[in-house]
Design a protein that fits this description.
2 copies of one chain form a homodimer.
Chain A lengths: L1 H17 L7 E5 L4 H15 L3 E7 L13 E5 L8 H14 L4 H31 L2 H9 L4 E4 L5 H8 L4 E5 L1 E2 L2 E2 L1 H4 L20 H25 L1 H7 L6 H5 L4 E4 L15 E3 L13 H8 L6 E5 L9 H12 L4 E5 L12 E4 L4 H5 L4 E6 L3 H10 L3 E3 L6 H10 L3 E3 L7 H13 L1 H15 L5 H14 L15 H4 L2 H32 L1
Parallel strand pairs in A: 1-2, 1-4, 2-3, 4-5, 5-8, 8-9, 10-11, 10-13, 11-12, 13-14, 14-15
Antiparallel strand pairs in A: 6-7
Keywords (chains A, B): Glycosyltransferase, Membrane, Signal, Transferase, Transmembrane, Transmembrane helix
Enzyme class (chains A, B): transferase
Organism (chains A, B): Periophthalmus magnuspinnatus
Chain lengths: 524, 524
């Protein structure tokens, strides 16, 4: 059965991807910079190969999004930018490490507060940048004249959402984060009883205390939305959109949400008809390693290798932690390949190779790879699942804590805390993940389930993007509930009305009773 | 783009359907009789052609489910049966026609009460029939020994749900109705503010009065569940399942819900990760018509033909209604093919052909067909959408009222009331649907959207059935919320706790204030 399906899928993929689309369409893309761009670029390449004309709006100062590309035409836009750089995150990391010394209950709030400080300023900058565009008649005429068929955007930063709504373009989101949480919180019912709010590090199985924390966190995040994030855009909304429009209503008018999630990783939860899951769409089969790496990996013998990458943050790990990690690695029988930038640890063993960059998918897909030491970024977690490699999570910031909790809950990861890392604790965790077969078995089961789909996540993404183009939107998949005020959505007006009727009926009955009594008294 | 996809889908379908599955599996099927069986049988044929061994449990007295088949082995079970027959529905039809003379607000409650009367008795019979099976050691040993890999059942009648849970089999539902409503109400959040409760004839766009009605109907249907339906099974649950088990918890333990719905027809609403939509999976391209029908159809010239079928109920339509319909048809320039059993109407025109049976899909798929006069059964509605034929709805019972409302809301149908049908009103409605091009345009747009999927609904059903077999279930897609008590699910316990804390804090503050005041007074 399985082989039939595999064959089918291969045929499907080949057919889908080799044929350029017959009618060309014009797609306007507003990506989010940084690691989000890697995701978006991957889709753009495929869309380009299928004959679509792609225009990318990029900040003139962007480091990640190339100005010149064979895949797309870019338009430089003026983005008000923060003087933010990696230093912001490095400083934040130290604050977060302080937070993590607090109790389990408190630390999530402490960490979220660190994020709140960034969010306020960030959204103000984004709103002003969007206003610069809408207020620029030359730019807007160019946009109108281009007659785009689709807005494809990552609403993690809402400039694309605002511009697409203003231009009344059918819209597809390539999304995982929106506003201040995971995308479902904006568009699907999310009972706080079993759906952990982003940032809580809770699972879907919560005891009473967990649920108290989750509800309080829900209140915190709603407060953040209502008093910090949405108001940042209110001036822009008033000037350019019909009365009553807010950022959320623009977001909810998207036609299709391509959500970068898969329920082998996310906890199962309510979803909506216009949500399509493409988690892991960036994963690919490994290519052969460069010669030097291949020689190094092969030299590991039966023990195999361990891969470590913490993204761009490693230079900010406290020196003590780096030394502890290096010392622990030195005691392992495995070889280690460590993506590392900065001063070489004094405790580095002969078995450990420091590299400035590593071909992550090719190493994770290599049969000799035994474990992946990672900070818990979403892309890395899906790659670990795709290639079936167990994880030692060393989460540092943002969603990384939640991400590694998801893999741990499924028995596919151990978590090590940066705040208290020692050679011993790290060594014990790595040894456990490498030597205890359950981690490997669990992640490989996840891998089988993740790959067991009628269509690959990338082909699914392409299908729905083209679906929205050829059908000029997908309003029949959008719930009417999105346009209701909150008191109507929850039927609080109806409840109040029924309560009044009930009270009136009870009072009337009481009156009649009293009357009867009085009549009786009179008769007496 | 579209042609590429079509080609892909064809290749996919051919590959999927031509290859028998490599590992055979044993599937236990508990269908629902009647029109539900037609749906199930269609899937069973495909599963058989893919090499699965199928065992069907049927009532020894079943009229619809053949005992002997080349597709499956059947096992006769003793079903306690009602003396119910078509007469029950005929009597009910008259009661429902009475209901429909009441106001829009009231009539839904009146009709639902007619259904309630059937439901109570029906579920008692079903519970006792299920008990007969579980209490029969010879039958149960046979079931255990057969080592089935899957329970495939229509939970419209829950014998398969109960037996599958008892045997601890991975379970797939082929479902549209469960307990007393459309299947989503049992397993997905369903805000009453925009999701019309089954039986209300409301759409997703409700004004305040509509929402009051919907909330009251919600309360009615919950009462029916809690005090009529679930209690019917409580004795069975106590004797055969762990404490705390009820019918709902067994239903919610299904691995995959293949829901016979599509959002070109249903209003968009929250859904769950283990729900897969297969609405219209029974639809097929038309075959050529039998010679006599083909001649009749061709003789209609450019005017075309109108098809009428009211399922098995037409003999029960009041004589007056039948005469009015026949008289209206007689005035049309179209030819009419009418599935009709009973005494020939005196007003029958020369253009109208009465038949005892008609090849519905072949007629609906014929280019000369202009309109479909139908009672609004789900299968017929999906066939109308699939073939792009506008509908004149003449709903009589059950979900038919809701079904035609859905097509009307999308501009693809007119509704005629059986309670007040006259020649004039019927003629006006049919003429409107045939002559006003908007009905045809709308239903053809629905048809395009319905067919615009990465995989056909039938292939989707087969994929997920085999998915559950090869993965031995799909618990990772099942939400934890299903196992929470209702007060925890809605966080009412947490709300109460937080309220207590808040009150305590306020009281304490007040006390301190008073103390201060007193101290001040003392000082004075």
């Amino acid at each position: 059965m399985w082989t039939t399906l595999s064959f089918t899928l291969t045929v499907l993929s080949l057919v889908l991807l080799s044929c350029p689309s017959s009618d060309s369409s014009r797609i306007l893309v507003v990506p989010v910079d940084g690691s989000h761009w890697l995701n978006m670029e991957h889709i753009l390449r495929k869309l380009h190969s299928r004959g679509h004309e792609i225009t990318v709006l990029r900040s003139a100062k962007s480091w990640y999004i190339p100005e010149n590309s064979t895949v797309y035409t870019s338009i430089n836009i003026r983005m008000l930018e923060d003087e933010e750089d990696l230093e912001v995150y490095n400083r934040m990391l130290l604050d977060v490490i302080e937070c993590r010394k607090k109790s389990r209950f408190i630390r999530s709030f402490c960490q979220q507060y660190e994020i709140t400080k960034l969010l306020g300023k960030g959204h103000e900058i984004l709103a002003n940048s969007a206003a610069l565009l809408l207020d620029d008649p030359v730019f807007m005429k160019k946009m109108h004249d281009a007659q785009f068929n689709l807005m494809l955007t990552d609403p993690g930063m809402p400039i694309g959402v605002i511009l697409g709504s203003y231009l009344k373009l059918p819209t597809v989101f390539n999304v995982r984060w929106i506003n201040n949480g995971e995308s479902h919180f904006a568009m699907a019912p999310s009972p706080a009883s079993y759906i952990p709010i982003s940032g809580t590090e809770l699972t879907d199985k919560m005891d009473f205390v967990d649920r108290v924390k989750n509800v309080l966190f829900y209140i915190y995040s709603q407060t953040e939305l209502q008093f910090l994030i949405y108001p940042a855009y209110s001036n822009l909304m008033e000037r350019h959109f019909p009365p009553g429009t807010d950022l959320l209503s623009l977001e909810l008018s998207a036609d299709i949400w391509l959500v970068r999630a898969d329920f082998v990783f996310e906890f199962p939860r309510p979803t909506m008809p216009n949500v399509v899951y493409i988690g892991g769409f960036q994963c690919q089969e490994p290519s052969p390693l460069p010669n030097d790496l291949q020689t190094f990996v092969e030299s590991s013998g039966d023990h195999g290798v361990i891969i470590m990458s913490l993204g761009t943050f490693v230079s900010a790990l406290p020196r003590k932690a780096t030394e502890a990690i290096a010392a622990a690695f030195a005691e392992l029988p495995q070889k280690v390949i460590w993506k590392y930038i900065g001063q070489q640890p004094t405790t580095l063993g002969n078995n450990t190779l420091l590299v400035k960059w590593l071909p992550q998918k090719d190493l994770l897909g290599h049969p000799k790879t035994r474990a992946f030491v990672a900070h818990g970024g979403t892309n890395g977690m899906y790659e670990a699942i795709y290639h079936g490699v167990p994880v030692v999570g060393l989460p540092l910031l943002f969603d990384q804590f939640d991400n590694v909790v998801r893999l741990k809950e499924r028995g596919a990861a151990r978590i090590v805390e940066a705040k208290s890392i020692t050679k011993e604790s790290f060594l014990e965790a790595v040894k456990d993940v490498v030597e205890n077969p359950s981690y490997r078995e669990n992640v490989q089961r996840l891998s089988r389930l993740h790959r067991d789909t009628p269509m690959s996540p990338m082909d699914t993404a392409l299908f729905w993007i083209e679906y929205v183009i050829r059908n000029k939107g997908a309003p029949h998949l959008r719930a009417v509930g999105y346009s209701l005020p909150w008191y109507s959505y929850f039927c609080l007006d109806v409840a109040a009305f029924l309560l009044v009727i009930l009270v009136a009926l009870v009072c009337k009955k009481q009156q009649q009773k009293n009357k009867k009594k009085n009549n009786k008294k009179t008769l007496k």
